[in-house]
Amino acid sequence: MAGTIICYGDSNTYGYDARPYLGARYPEDRRWPEILDTRTEWHVENYGLNGRCIPRYSGEIRVVCNCLRQWSALESPVWLWIMLGTNDVLRTPGTTAETAAERMERFLKELMACEEISGGAVRLRLISPVYLQPGVWVESDEMCRESERLDELYRKLAADLGIAFTCAGEWGIPLLFDGVHFSEEGHLKFAECVIRELEMQADKNI
Asked: Does residue 99 come out as left (phi exceeding 0), alpha (psi in the -120 to 50 range) or beta?
């Protein structure tokens, strides 16, 4: 096994399926983290949660810091991949990309102060989310624009903090009618894009 990847995200990591009236979850073989676990040598754990925003309150951040102790004991190297920000823009109209990036900066700095990350037992990768598209859950073009702007702000943040960065917005992931959630094809394509990135960076400590 190559090591462990912890995928910490929202419903697009969890694998939410918006097609049923009350919503559902895609089967394991249709969710990108589980596809990675099956198709690569990495052990991949899915820590997606529907509706998750960037943790910004002390209690929320402390929960993740406590999880780091558990994650650091897994097969190394251990990577924590964070893909959040969509719900920050989506759930509160008027929230800007700058606001989301400020929340992310505080969250990442708090994590980097933890011994597990400062000591190198767990490494960080920031992933800028797939862009929102017009749909039944996306009420304005402004939301789409702000979600796209997360890319440039997260890219700079990752560079400033010296952590790995991936822009998922460039991958053209197919979404459902709501303009937010990955289709089954989208999960497969997302996994394939990640696998290509892992292969390209195999000699660069991903």
From this structure: alpha
Backbone φ, ψ for residue 3 (5° rounding): 145, -160
pLDDT band with cut points at 50, 70 and 90 for residue 176: very high
Handedness of CA 76, 27, 138, 95 (dihedral sign): negative
pLDDT digits (tens, 9 = 90+) for 7-21: 999 999 999 999 999
| Residue closest to 90 by CA, chosen among 18, 24, 27 | 18
% of the chain with per-residue pLDDT over 90: 91
Any residues with CB less than 8 A from the CB of 134 and at least 6 apart, and which?
Answer: 141, 144, 179
Is 165 in a helix, a strand, or coil?
Answer: strand
Residues 2 and 178: their CA atoms lie apart, in Å, by 36
Rounded to whole angstroms, the Cα distance separating 115 from 111 reads 9
Q: Are 130 and 173 in contact (CB under 8 A)?
A: yes
pLDDT digits (tens, 9 = 90+) for 143-171: 999 999 999 999 999 999 999 999 999 99
Sign for the pseudo-dihedral over CA of 48, 50, 56, 58: negative
CA–CA separation, 205 and 169 (whole Å): 22
